[in-house]
Amino acid sequence: MENDENNGQKGQLTIPILQSEVQRMTPDGIEMGVMENGMPYLSQRGLVKMAGIARTSFQNLTNDWQSAKMIGVGHDINKLLLDAGYEEDELYVEINTDGKPMYAYTEPVCLAILEYYAFDAKKRSEVAQNSFRLLSKAGFRVFVYGHTGYKPDHTQLDSWKHFHDRIDLVSKEVPSGYFCVFREIAGMIVSLIRHDIIVNDKIIPDISVGQHWGKFWRTNDLDSKYGERINYKHNYPDYYPQSKSNPQPAKAYPDEALALFRRWFEETYLVSKFPTYMLNKVKAKALPKDNAEYLIDIFKQDKLEKKTTPIDPQLKTALGFNPKDN
Known about the structure:
alpha+beta
């Protein structure tokens, strides 16, 4: 699979790694924290301590989960995870803590690990039994929030919920070999949330991006160069007003045009279209003016710092670039 130099694998959803909002260690050495989206977690060190198991054996399990979940201990733990609705490819979420990468284990994984070693393992762990009973009684979120002193910003948590619920609905609908606008601008939406912009049924930037990109595509007859766009089913969460007309008509684009889209998004949309979108939200009273101006400045500065290469030749061609005008 080809790599785009700045954006990871071709056609793949790229979301900036989440930050740890707070991290603490209890007096008895259990390391835990809360991600910026309000999701509580245990570190690998914290989880194995609560389970009363050797860290080396757990590392083997988690590092090769795709194979490990098919047999033995991994198979039994995976059954508990599936019963809890957990179907992710990995047991952990990679996050940043003080600028350093680490693995975070969320509630369903922690409870499944503890339950297995407490009641199902050949050699049951009394430590895991006590931990499982403690978390079952107190609640995982309450337990971690209490020990870390985390007080959630419910407005921001709602934005994360809106974002992740849409990701879940869209992720499996786009056919292989194609990309969609919503998944590709996930990084921008994450940035909005990180800067305390409320993302909800009134702030949906992918609609704006999709409209401008669609116009750009048609104007430059990119079907003839990259292949035709296709339709896919785009659904909104049921608490969105837009869900009443699900599935929404949406376009997916050939992966061959992904590099062009990313350059267009950075050098055209964010520069000349995004400010208008934000100011229109101010006029509609969906966004305070100070917030909009602040975000526009942030994105402009970000683009200035990143702009180290000349405009992409494909973008020049598509835009009808004239060297005499440069």
